[in-house]
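Anyone able to model this chain together with flavin-adenine dinucleotide?
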Amino acid sequence: MRGSSSRMTNDRIVIIGAGPVGLCLSLALAQADLKVCLIEALGDDNFLEQVPRAGTNHPATLEMYERIGLYEKLEPRGIIAPVFHYWDRHEGTLIAAFDHGHLKNDTRFPYVLQCERIKIVEEALKMAKAHPNIDLRLNTEFVSFEQDADGVVAHIVNAAAEQETIAGRYIVSGEGARSIVRKELGIAFEGFTYDDRTLNIEVAYDFKKHGYADRNYISDPNEWSNLFHWKGPPDRWRVHFRTDPKADEKALLQPAALQAQMQRFLPIGKSFDIVGSNLYIVHQRVANKFRIGRAILAGDSAHVNSPIGAMGMNSGVHDAINLADKLIAISRGEADQSVLDRYERQRRHVAIAHTQAQTIRNKRLLAERDPIVRKRNHDELRRTAENPDLARKFLLRTALFESLREADAIA
Ligand SMILES: Cc1cc2nc3c(=O)[nH]c(=O)nc-3n(C[C@H](O)[C@H](O)[C@H](O)COP(=O)(O)OP(=O)(O)OC[C@H]3O[C@@H](n4cnc5c(N)ncnc54)[C@H](O)[C@@H]3O)c2cc1C
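re: yes, here you go
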């Protein structure tokens, strides 16, 4: 970070990254009449070429999409999935089926929407392009920033490959896990990285005829997996597998190896139509501060976690909406800057006590090797799913409502 500058007087909010977090934040601010400059390294030519990532959108997040007018664009592109399953691959049995219908009195959305991150950012980007309060800079690389008591200046390389400075009142990092803002602020990203990588295989095949729901968490002492359904055409299913940390990356991604992996998972007597694959590393980390002065972290720049439970993008969008409300209150003179400390207290608490705790627990549950503990875990899941009160409580937690209620109670 460099020294102070008297140019830091522009009232707009500078947001780095047009991922789900940067876009939702931009839309919420712009709709409340704040000016936004949104900076994104990708351009129209490659924006839709991003690797497959998030896609399960929980009910609490759907309420937020609805508030910014995004839900109606996403629903036709996704799959409404009220039910999810836990399976025991070792025994070949369904352990429990959880139905979001238990939340019908808690939310207008008693289901998750299976709608991939790429569709979300595509739709949100169209809305951002059309909004007069958003100055969208595609093909623009954020490089560094500086701040003083009055504002910030971001240093960028613009679409014409020229260096440029953008002044604003605040800078928000929606840059994802490799956040330059976080690094420039010297904020530690505390936590750990799993040594095993996760293999994602995408196949065009109808798993429903084998009894699977649209979302399935599959426990196995040797090779846990997840199975998720996505709307096409053609309809696709993503299967995630644990891999041996020592296995060679290229060998894992060979077509024959992918086919063999799928046939071990479900022998169907013919080849699977494999339409995509990739490997990813899983981190569990939380920034030890979410804000210093006028620079604020949100989404993956502030916290990253295993995708088991679908909480990364969802909790990032919750950061965005929480932060939007606070920046709007400041701009209207209804709150002073100290309200941003509450943003950090609320969202850091959620990242640690909910997102991290729950995703670590989820992975342990699927990978548990001790047969006695496995049986105890599975019996408990079964009992919970069969009792409507316990199932509702469980779903309020997995659908992220509990994390929001807890955050609301934080002063
Ligand atoms: C396999 C997998 C499955 C997942 N499934 C789920 C799920 O089902 N549900 C869920 O909630 N989460 C899931 N996640 C996590 C989810 O993808 C992330 O939490 C989410 O994408 C984070 O959003 P973000 O906007 O913070 O950052 P990102 O999505 O990483 O977006 C960051 C944006 O910033 C831009 N950018 C970065 N650096 C710069 C720079 N210097 N200059 C300009 N632009 C820059 C990038 O190009 C990008 O567009 C999954 C992750 C993985 C890997």
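Residues 1-6 have pLDDT under 50 and may be disordered.
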